[in-house]
Amino acid sequence: MHGAPSLSVVIPYYRGAASIREAVQSVLEQTVAAEEIVICDDGSPDDLDAALGPLRSKVKVVRQGNAGIAAAMNATTEAASGELLVQLDQDDAFLPRRLEAIRDAAVADPGADAIATDAVVEYDGEAVLRLGEAHPFEASDQRLAILRSCFFLWPAIRRSRLIAIGGYDESFPVMQDWECFIRLVLDGVRVAYVPEALYRWRLTPGSRSSADGVANAEALIRMMEKTVANPGLDAAEREVAAEELASHRLRLALERARLAIDTGAGDARRRSFEVMSWKGASPARRAKAAVAVASPRLARALLGGRGRLDPGREALARRGFG
């Protein structure tokens, strides 16, 4: 197609032997072929070549010592040659038309430097919701929207724009994607959207934990502290960023209380008291914290339970998107 950008699919890899072949196969089965598939082996102790098997010759592999997802994404950015870098996690997969839809969107809207699609959230092999239903894409005022939520995931990003902002911040072991997307949008990148679920976010039981929630909340606070200090924010954006920073601090208190309750820690009641006394906490959250003080067993079902929660929405909440 005339004017169509070249597409490189980039995959960070660490301990993904059980899923990487299916991820790569989903790229090879696209209706529009990728220019290349670039995988960064981030010092994984398993054997990536053996896991890929006969697909090894279909991909470009770069290797480094274990340095985290952000460093792996930077390595794939450096090694890739495509104009658009299309993200894929090692545990996930593309539906067959994803690259075609991204290419067509790029041709139709050449001013967009990032393109996202909707995704289906799968839990233990079963589709549980569409990402766009729980977390709608924002077409207007994307600068304010990206401060409030990471309204797109696994995009195709113009390689030159990603390099221009310095790539991913390697000091973030988690939330490195959202932090990077904030800088992209604030730098003037506009995100286009394909409202078709063409990405499979594949979750498994045990893939999220209370400890994950605490780590994510801590990263969200540091991310928003960094954003508040950005001199490119206008007054309205700085106010929103400050509000979100306060919200993430409350989230951290909640996640610490959840972790204490889940693990039976001796400070569970103290953590719950912190939430009860937090200025700005909603009545519902205060009520749950009060239950935790009175009955940690009951609170486990309210604050930290797993069995009755929608797993897709729980996963979004754990990543800071809920």
Number of strands: 9
Question: Main sheet, how many strands, which sense, barrel?
Answer: 9 strands, mixed
Structural class: alpha/beta
Count of alpha and pi helical runs = 14
How large, in whole angstroms, is the Cα Rg? 20 Å
What is the CATH top level name of the largest domain? Alpha Beta
CATH homologous superfamily designation of the largest domain: Spore Coat Polysaccharide Biosynthesis Protein SpsA, Chain A
State the share of residues found in helices, binned by percent: 40-55%
Beginning-to-end CA distance, first to last residue: 39 Å
Q: Average pLDDT across residues?
A: 86
Q: Secondary-structure element sequence?
A: EHEHEHEEHEEHHEHHEHHHHHH
> What is the general shape?
globular
CATH architecture of the largest domain: Alpha-Beta Complex
Q: Could you outline the blueprint of secondary structure elements for this entry?
A:
Layout (H helix, E strand, L loop, with lengths): L6 E7 L6 H9 L7 E7 L5 H5 L7 E5 L4 H11 L4 E4 L5 E2 L3 H11 L5 E10 L2 E5 H4 L7 H7 L7 E3 H6 L11 H11 L4 E13 L6 H19 L6 H29 L4 H9 L6 H12 L1 H9 L6 H8 L4
Parallel strand pairs: 1-2, 1-4, 2-3, 6-9
Antiparallel strand pairs: 4-8, 5-9, 6-7, 6-8
What distinguishing features does this structure have?
nine-stranded mixed beta sheet; Spore Coat Polysaccharide Biosynthesis Protein SpsA, Chain A; single chain; 322 residues; 14 helices; alpha/beta
